[in-house]
Specification:
This protein is an all-alpha fold. The chain is built from nine helices and two strands; from the N terminus they run ααααββααααα. It has a two-stranded antiparallel sheet. α3 runs antiparallel to α7 and α6 crosses α7.
Length: about 220
């Protein structure tokens, strides 16, 4: 592993050692991210530790679906970026003779045709784009195809919570200071989720699922 914290103030919990082991078994880089987050949260004294640690946890949550041959959560192109690609074709179409004070008239000219082609591509991509929650749900199903550790009726609830946690850590990683008091408990929830997804212990997974859904129902 790339990082081996030696600071005397740093001690991982048994659950954190377990999570680190599961992640290291899949990808040492992801394990290092998690280890760095736990280390920084434990020894940091400034508010900046939340931003840095949250970024590492966000990356871990992004990567988990990849362990089950699914896209990373951050691999989805943003709607804003895709709309920006339509801006230039739209401006060009607005200069077409087909655009009149009374609406669009006449035969489609090259500029209008180009915009329509670009919009068709955008529409097809948008229609076929899988949501982050769909990816999270598929990862949970693939993690336990026999539905031993993760009952099918709880997959959607867990996937929803996964994405809420992803949003929470992403916001902190981008400089938000809201909810830093929830960081330790939300980190523990991520750890439970990793154990559920990567661990081979059904009874332990069910206990962790109960804890995660209890947090969701409490509005944390």
């Amino acid at each position: 592993m790339g990082m081996s914290p030696t600071d005397e103030r740093f001690r991982r919990s048994p659950q954190q050692d377990q999570v680190l082991g599961f992640l290291a078994g899949k990808d040492s880089r992801v394990a290092d991210w998690y280890d760095s987050a736990v280390f920084q949260l434990a020894i940091g004294t400034s508010a900046a530790r939340f931003c840095s640690a949250a970024n590492f946890i966000r990356l871990v949550l992004n990567e988990l679906p990849r362990f089950f041959q699914l896209p990373q959560l951050i691999s989805l192109p943003s709607l804003t970026a895709r709309l920006e690609k339509l801006e230039q074709p739209w401006r060009a179409a607005c200069g077409s003779r087909c655009r009149t004070p009374d609406g669009w008239r006449g035969e489609i000219d090259p500029s209008v045709g180009n915009f329509l082609a670009e919009y068709e591509t955008f529409s097809n991509e948008n229609g076929g784009q899988r949501s982050k929650q769909d990816i999270a749900g598929d990862a949970l199903r693939r993690a336990d195809p026999a539905q031993v550790a993760i009952p099918l009726n709880l997959v959607d609830d867990m996937a929803e919570r996964w994405i809420k946690l992803h949003h929470y850590f992403s916001a902190l990683a981008h400089g938000s200071s809201r909810g830093t008091d929830k960081f330790p408990e939300n980190l523990e929830e991520v750890e439970r989720m990793v154990v559920i997804i990567l661990g081979p212990r059904p009874s332990e997974s069910l206990a962790n699922i109960d804890a995660i859904l209890a947090e969701e129902n409490s509005g944390a």
